[in-house]
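User: For my dataset I need records formatted as: sequence, then structure tokens, nothing else. Please produce one.
Assistant:
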Amino acid sequence: MQFFLITILLGLILTSLVSGNNLSVSVGTIVGARIIKRWTGVLIGVTGYIFGLVLEGESLKFAATALLPHSYFYISIALLISIMAFILATLLRAPLSLIMVLVGSVIGISIHAGKIPDQGLLLLIITMWIVSPLLSIVISYFSNVILVRKTPKDIWKTATAMKGLLVGASFFTSFTLGANTLGFILNLLGGGSTILLVMIIGIIIGSIFLSRGAIRRVGEEMYSMRYSSATISLLSSAILVEIATVLGVPLSNSQTLSASVVGSGLSYKFKAINMKPFLLIVATWIISTLLGFFLGYIF
């Protein structure tokens, strides 16, 4: 009972961190472009998170149960490692993928406990983590190239339609994060109505109080994006995460979105891209997973 309560508390904290940390990825563009106000963006993000978690969260059940034995002691260690890694990354101002740290720690704990995770699932996860960013770059690049060639007849109507599509893409991005990342946490905690309620509370708390620390390096530090490019980046990223959810694979939204932003940038013939932030993010993807694995195995 004691470890159950500790696990619930850690699950609440991690859910809050994930929700707040990723809200800028989901709705940062439409809030920053003043298409909507911040509180409207928070509402869109929270709604998307909850709908994704409730409707598709169960898709990650096999991944959660296959990677880690259901023990509240083991689960609490994995959650604690993820929280510690997030706090450390925040203090160092370094980008971090919480889901990659969590998955890495889960695998490390399982191996330390003498349980080898499902090898087929591990291969699928590694493949998706490598292929998805590459696909995201390619899809975003060619979508932007095709879109640039078409000159809209009515610029104002096109801009208005693009704003609406961008809002929809932001909601869809929030939905896929709720289904995938939060869904993985839900099933790792054991699922059920009590866990679901706790996570919904965590979503609301994190989105309201922890979302001001925006992830600026994904968009603002690379280049200023047009509405069309931002929409394509969000949609291509969200679609790939949705595919991963259907396949039952935990996949980082920031991983696919960062790659799609680079793909959009490469399509700009007359605009230079600062690749240093993206390369730093790629490095942290690898470090996040290895750090989580190492800490999980040690603890």
